[in-house]
């Protein structure tokens, strides 16, 4: 009678091997940190990136002027872009062919262009093509940011409208509402509830894109964060001004990121269940 033999078990389980692998990665990371700390010239690093005297000289202007201007430019661009994006999304879903073609061409064109080219075109192209048109700095930045943002937000809004159940529109029509009124009062409010998280993400992207306004030039009172940092580099040595400007951007973007995560939890697929618990 044959005796069934079982293969010998290896000396280490998968869990132990995974734990050992993670431990080795931690050891490598600690060694890298220790070597970097021993080799670094901390005095030179502090002088280059964390010069306290330079930081003191940048405040409060970096907040009261540069940070405020960045927030204002972003808000104007987002508001203009959102309104334009809604029009483009409705045109893209229209039954009229030319509306769909114009909207589709606009969206694909400006999604494919670098934002810097849009800023240059609006800031220098429009004044050259139309000498009688006088655009101040705020309007120029608002147009450039709005054009860039609307191409992306239009597709987001269109996806949100399509995500609303078709029965909502049919129910409104059965109550005597016109198609346009039902869309504006029933469908679009529900669509915006769905797309709030991606719209918040677009606001973060526009905040960073506002840095491209430096190519337009500005007085000190008109400078946003990036241009303020570039100007400070000509006065103060080292990278401390850039570090300060970067931290100011984070003051805007981190709260917006937290807001986006909360909106996703609240309005995401499981948001309704989470809010009841």
UniProtKB/TrEMBL annotation:
GO molecular-function terms, A-Z: transmembrane transporter activity
Major place of residence: membrane
Example GO BP: amino acid transport
Record localization: Cell membrane
Coiled-coil features, chain-numbered ranges: none
GO terms under cellular component: ATP-binding cassette (ABC) transporter complex
Residues that span the membrane, as ranges: 20-40, 71-91, 112-130, 238-259
InterPro entries referenced in this protein's UniProt entry, alphabetically: AA_ABC_transptr_permease_3TM, ArtM/GltK/GlnP/TcyL/YhdX-like, MetI-like, MetI-like_sf
Keyword Transmembrane helix: yes
Membrane topology, record value: Multi-pass membrane protein
A family per Pfam: BPD_transp_1
Keywords: Amino-acid transport, Cell membrane, Membrane, Transmembrane, Transmembrane helix, Transport
Residue ranges of domain ABC transmembrane type-1 in the record: 67-260
Superkingdom per UniProt: Bacteria
Family the UniProt entry places it in: Belongs to the binding-protein-dependent transport system permease family.
Protein name according to UniProt: Polar amino acid transport system permease protein
Organism per entry: Actinopolyspora biskrensis
Upper lineage: Bacteria, Bacillati, Actinomycetota, Actinomycetes, Actinopolysporales
């Amino acid at each position: 009678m044959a005796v069934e033999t079982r293969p010998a078990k290896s000396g280490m389980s998968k869990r132990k091997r995974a734990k050992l692998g993670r431990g080795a990665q931690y050891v490598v990371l600690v060694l890298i940190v220790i070597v970097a700390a021993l080799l670094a010239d901390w005095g030179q690093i502090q002088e280059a990136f964390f010069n306290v005297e330079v930081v003191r000289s940048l405040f409060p202007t970096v907040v009261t002027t540069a940070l405020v201007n960045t927030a204002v430019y972003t808000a104007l661009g987002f508001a203009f872009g959102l309104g334009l994006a809604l029009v483009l999304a409705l045109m893209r879903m229209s039954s009229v062919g030319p509306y769909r073609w114009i909207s589709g061409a606009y969206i694909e064109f400006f999604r494919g262009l670098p934002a810097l080219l849009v800023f240059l075109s609006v800031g220098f192209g429009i004044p050259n093509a139309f000498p009688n048109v006088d655009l101040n700095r705020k309007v120029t930045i608002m147009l450039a940011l709005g054009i860039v943002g609307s191409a992306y937000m239009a597709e987001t809004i269109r996806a949100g409208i399509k995500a609303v159940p078709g029965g909502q529109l049919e129910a409104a029509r059965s109550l005597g509402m016109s198609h346009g009124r039902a869309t504006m009062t029933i469908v679009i409010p529900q669509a915006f509830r769905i797309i709030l998280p991606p719209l918040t993400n677009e606001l973060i992207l526009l905040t960073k894109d506002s840095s491209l306004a430096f190519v337009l030039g500005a007085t000190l009172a008109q400078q946003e964060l990036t241009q303020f940092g570039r100007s400070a580099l000509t006065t103060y040595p080292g990278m401390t001004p850039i570090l300060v400007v970067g931290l100011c951007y984070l003051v805007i973007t981190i709260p917006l990121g937290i807001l986006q995560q909360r909106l996703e939890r609240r309005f995401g697929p499981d948001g309704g269940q989470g809010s009841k618990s």
